[in-house]
């Protein structure tokens, strides 16, 4: 028997040697005889250099044949017909899941394609201006905050136009639509899809995962996204990119004809079922796959009947599993278990999973290996990992990164400007850079990014339509006032905070550490991100005003503490003065103290006593008496019913008005005339100024702002403010006609 086997082996070797020799002779003589066209790459011109290239191509082909011969001999020399199988955890993936390093243009090429291979340079995996589509499911305040960090990391590295597709609830849609509209990033499109319309598709699936029903929404993307969208990258909101997303998009080209989903292997032992006694996970191939990063070939999925297939899979498994533990990931894995040929396995650095007890450290040896970091543990930044400090710093870099720097154009990729951008550009071109007030006028046109409802917000409207929101603005140096205001005002609050990206994160940590602020859900915090050299105080005020959700608003400053019980007193006054049917502005008299520690008066009588003792003063009586003198403090001392006062020049009281009142004029930035102009317009619209006899507020001391210092030290600043005043009066006259002439006259008489 052994002699017979050796004889057959010698015969095979002799036959192969003859085949190789004949092939070499064919390549040397036959191809050259038939002309150059079979050897020369079609992309090369017929030049003298072609002869050199022809020779190198011939040599290359000979080497390929020799290498094939060596491989065949190696196989024949092996005593066993098949190789040993790999460990169970990786077997299935190696058998049917092509890695991102192979594809139709690599390991899966046909013999004919290999023989026709030329030395032409390959086209890049992604064209220069190719549009990349990215989808996310985002619901609620916290997820909306997380997705901004994801978007920053993508924008930081990207070199291609992007189209973000967000499946959102009402909250996230309001937040993200406002954010992207104000962000105005070139070559970025954003589309929103109502998650409520998709809930019926997945609400029948019991889910134990903390993501709730929204954790199942990725299953519906073939239905939710436009029917003409062929492929999309799907990301969880807790993802951070460390490379250009175009690299991930390019992997679609490596899919075989049958592959429809690209995923990274799960890096924990969850699907192996050995985490604890009686642990029974959903079925999966080997370790299973993580769905934090998915490449979905939507066109192919629709042809396969994806919607019906995943439903049948879920129905079948739920008969024994009863509910999902990891939301959509369980169903994706069960589907792949039944249809392994449909998945394309991505290298694990495309989804480095930072949950406890994972094998993520095997995905990288150098920092340059990192592509995508996935904070998929409920502990998020507190997860245990040997390199967690590095990952945390990378995440914090994007968390605090100035989003204004991402408003950069993509060179060589022209994008269609939005109507808002065109209008803004035209207005900027109309400005005269030689104008001494150019900086003031330029600031008025600056579009600031706005992140509404930065923290959790819950508000239930009052049944009697008398509710009032306290509206104010602040910056980082007034943060210490928030807890005191929340203690003095129990009603809803709308606050606009002017901060940098880094300061917004400091505020977040401050609010999360404060027991007072954590327990108040009826406070809306709206971040207006810093840009430019001035404090756009009236723009920030308008953000807070627009996002009040009550019929009435109390327009104040954050330096003031309202008297205890003011909220309920104002609600009664709204009814008493019939504000629903009349145009009134209720004036809350303002006082101040020079003491940082104050025993706050509990009544009007106690306040009057402190006023007589010199512990309190009428607001700004010694610096700017005209600002509040028309309140008539002498009359207020003995008043028991509301009384009407007349407008006077420079009057700037704090008032309660209907929410549909005129907005603040945004040309006034920094210090000076920002509230005066607003009260002036209230009077122009014939609001009655009514002083409340039993209401008061007290200004707490603080260091002078930077803007007031500029006002006091710069004559050009004061000159420009006067110019803006004159222009405001002219606009008022055009708007309200001859009735507005009294304001100009009053201003000139000062």
From TrEMBL:
Q: Where in the cell is it found?
A: Golgi apparatus membrane
Q: Alphabetically list the UniProt keywords.
A: Glycoprotein, Glycosyltransferase, Golgi apparatus, Manganese, Membrane, Metal-binding, Multifunctional enzyme, Signal-anchor, Transferase, Transmembrane, Transmembrane helix
Listed pathway(s): Protein modification; protein glycosylation
Protein name, per record: LARGE xylosyl- and glucuronyltransferase 2
User: Upper taxonomic classification of the species?
Assistant: Eukaryota, Metazoa, Chordata, Craniata, Vertebrata
What kind of membrane protein is this, topologically?
A: Single-pass type II membrane protein
Question: Secretion signal: which residues?
Answer: none
Biased-composition ranges, Basic and acidic residues, are: 111-120
* Function according to Swiss-Prot or TrEMBL: Bifunctional glycosyltransferase with both alpha-1,3-xylosyltransferase and beta-1,3-glucuronyltransferase activities involved in the maturation of alpha-dystroglycan (DAG1) by glycosylation leading to DAG1 binding to laminin G-like domain-containing extracellular proteins with high affinity and in a phosphorylated-O-mannosyl trisaccharide dependent manner. Elongates the glucuronyl-beta-1,4-xylose-beta disaccharide primer structure by adding repeating units [-3-Xylose-alpha-1,3-GlcA-beta-1-] to produce a heteropolysaccharide. Supports the maturation of DAG1 more effectively than LARGE1.
List the residue ranges of the region (Disordered). 75-123
One GO MF term attached to the UniProt entry? glucuronosyltransferase activity
GO cellular component terms?
A: Golgi membrane
